[in-house]
Amino acid sequence: MRNEQSRGRYAAVVRQYVAITGLNIEDFNKLLESIERVHRYFGDCLPNNCLQPIAPLLIDDNIAMACYTRYFNPIRHGKTTASYPFGQGVDPNGELMQLGGSSYIHTEDNAVQYLEKKIENEKPK
Fold it and tell me: pLDDT per residue over 22-45, tens digit each?
């Protein structure tokens, strides 16, 4: 990145994204309906435009929920918060850490834990 201002523009908006689907399993679909009811409840209790809309999406005709979180928070919003390291698989070259510069910080609240299933010789481990 060229300078602190350029980095700041990107650090303010860069985020990680995942879409979760239950592959049309009824329990998952009911869970999403419950989440929508809770969202409507808060929407009714709070002033207009306080909540972002909740919008499930379809992936191959399966209902899904899009989830995301920012990689950074402005330092001014958490001056006493400690920096949290990026995982090796998330930032292998240290580019995200540099992107934060001196104005943005990656905290534990910004971290997403990933689980994976390792398969050796076609047998789950």
Answer: 998 999 999 999 999 999 999 999
Say if CB 95 and CB 3 are below 8 A apart.
no
Convert 4-30 to b/e letters by CB count within 10 Å (16 or more is b).
eeebbebbeeeeeeeeebbeeeeebee
Q: In the chain, pLDDT over 90 holds for what percent of residues?
A: 26
Q: How many helices (H) and strands (E) does the chain have?
A: 3, 7
CA dihedral defined by 119, 120, 121, 125, rounded to 10 degrees? -70
The reported pTM is 0.65
| Of 90, 50, 54, nearest in space to 72 by CA | 90
HSE-up of 105 (CA within 13 Å, CB side)? 14
